[in-house]
Sequence to fold (412 residues):
Amino acid sequence: MPLTATQAAELLKINPKTLRQKLRDGKIKGRQVGKNTWVIEERDLEAYKAQKGRAHHPHTSPLQTTPPGTRRPNTNAPEITAPAPDSPEVLGAAPKSGPVAAWLLLAVGENRAFGSNDGYDDEPEVHYKWDDTVPNRERISVGDAVVLWDKKTSIGASVIESIDTKTTTKPVYSCPECNKAHIKPRKSKRPLYKCFKCKSEFDQPTTTVKEVVEYTSTHSRAYVDLSGLLPAAKLRALCESPKSQLSLRPLKWEPFKMAVAEAGGPELMTVVEASWRTITGGHRTANVRVRIGQAAFRRELLTKVGSICAFTGPAPAPALEAAHLYSYAKVGEHREYGGLLMRRDLHRLFDAGLIAVCPETLTIDIGPSLANYPAYQQLAGHPLTIGLTKSQVQWLAEHWDEHRASAKRPVG
Fold:
C-alpha cells in the first residue's frame, strides 16, 4: 500500500524533512508527485529498513559476502539469466544474476547553462562523470544499463563496464546576497546572473572551492547510437518519476526497449543486452584510451578493402567501423593490416567476444548468449567475406583464445 512521506517518517521514527532528503538522495526509493509530496511503496520502505538493519549488524547479515558496490534490485529492470559456468563468456569471476538497473543520464556538455558549477567533461560514447553532490550518486553500479540524453533527445545507450572514483575539487558558484546556488547566467540581459531564490541580479557570483568525490563510469564496449531516436518528452515518461529533475534518473528498461522498437530500432538493444552477460559475468574491463588517428585508420581500411563488412559483405560506408584485431589499449598504435571493417553492431559484439573467428577454419563463431537472435545466429559457420593476411589470422587466433578459452579448437 502506498504511503505518504509523513506516514513513512512516522514508521521510521525520523523527521519528515529528513525522510524527504533521503528520497531526493535516492537512499529511499519513492515517487515524487508534487513539489514536496512523495509516495513510498511499503516494499521499498521495508527494503530500506532491512538494508539499515544489515548496516548495524554486518556480521550477521546474509549478504556479508556480497562484493562492495552490488546494487539493490530494481523491479522495473529486465531479468538477465547468467550464462553457464563453462560458457565462453565467463572468464574467471562468478556471474551476477537477478535484475539489472537502468538509468537516464543527462549529458549535455557545452550546451548546458551551468549556474552553480562548471559541469563535467562527458564523452557520451565513452564515459560519464558525476560527483557526490548529485542525488542517486551511489546507486549506479557496474552492469547497469544507461541511456544518455541532452534534454532534447536521446544520444545513446550502453552498459557500465567500470566505475572509478577520486577525490578532487571543483568551484561552486552562489548568490552573493543569499549564498544559495540557485543561479543561472543569462544570454542577453545584464547583470549576467539572476538568483532564483532571492531574485538578486549580479555580474560576479561568489566562488567557493569544494572538495568532492568524483565518479567516472566507462561504457564504450556496448555503446549504441540513438541520436534523435526518442524525444525528451518520451524519455521523461519512461522514468520511474516522470517529473524528476535529477541528472541521474531510474529508468524503466522494458518500456524503454519497446519505445526504441516502435521508433524503428528493434535490433539496437541487442548489443546492449548481449553485453550484460560478459560485463556482469566477470569479463575483465577494457582499458579506455583515446584512439589518436582512428579516423585515418578507418579511411585506410576503406581504401584497401572497400566498403565491405568482414562478416556480412558489402555495406554502406557510414555503417562500417574500423575494428582493431589486437588490444589498442595495450599497444597504443595503429598497425598495418591490424584491423577489419565491421558493421557497428558486429564490431561491438566482436569486442565483447560474443562473436569470434575460429582460427582453424576461418569461419564465424557465435556465442551462446546470441542464440535467440536469428540475425546473428545465421552467420554461424560462414567464412569471412574478405581475404586475410598472416598477421590478421594470428590476431584473430589470439582473440579466439582470449574469448573462447573453454572451447576446443576443431580438428582440421
Notes: The CA atoms of residues 111 and 313 lie 39 Å apart. Residues 42-56 form the longest helix (15 residues).
